[in-house]
Amino acid sequence: MAKDMTLLWGSGSPPCWRIQIMLEEKQLQGYNQKLLAFEKMEHKSQEVLDINPRGQLPAFKCGNHILNESYAACFFLENQYKSQGNKLIPDSPDAQALMYQRMFEAFTLGQKMADVIYYNYKVPEEERHDSAVQRNKEALTAELKLWEGYLNKTDCCLAGKEFTLADVLVFPGVAYLFRFGLCSERYPALAKYYTSLKDRPSIKATWPPTWQSTPAQDTLKTI
Length: 223
Description:
Elements lengths: L4 E6 L3 H12 L6 E5 L9 H4 L9 E4 L2 E2 L3 H11 L12 H25 L1 H4 L7 H23 L12 H15 L8 H10 L3 H4 L4 H5 L10
Parallel strand pairs: 1-2
Antiparallel strand pairs: 1-3, 3-4
Helix pairs in contact: 1-3, 1-7, 4-6, 4-7, 6-8, 7-8
């Protein structure tokens, strides 16, 4: 089964990492994969464009099915391989509702995180304003406080005691926050969530290789 799958990915990319974690959770090791370098613009190569015409990573093909959106790929894999590996959608309506809420709510977290981390990259120098930077930081701070509250009310994972699809999809973003210098003392619940899951086999096996060889950044240290 896994031999019919191809994943083109970039190290440290949360969308790529989600699919990698999902494949591990569903015991689908042995898929075809290729690590590409963003800094070399390899995500714009014809090899990627043949699968993902947007020229973005991940580029994921499962048999004849192309699923380049990480949420779509993870849902597809869970539905196609329900009886294989770990079950990631709980039966309990309460846990299932919470799982769906958190996983889709994470889009807002990701956007506010990107607004701060990539501001200088996205906004031309002549259009940058200190007031916009401050607004973005305040918006991210408010968002992180929400997630602190959520995690203070759960046992260890986002939807309760069990590791679910929400964790597959949200953990890479939380790890990204700490990679960019988020203060664990200021956000203890997020830090606890991060440290409790970072050694999970599926996460440890797919840890971004560039994170192991390059120093972390401090972009978010004042948030």
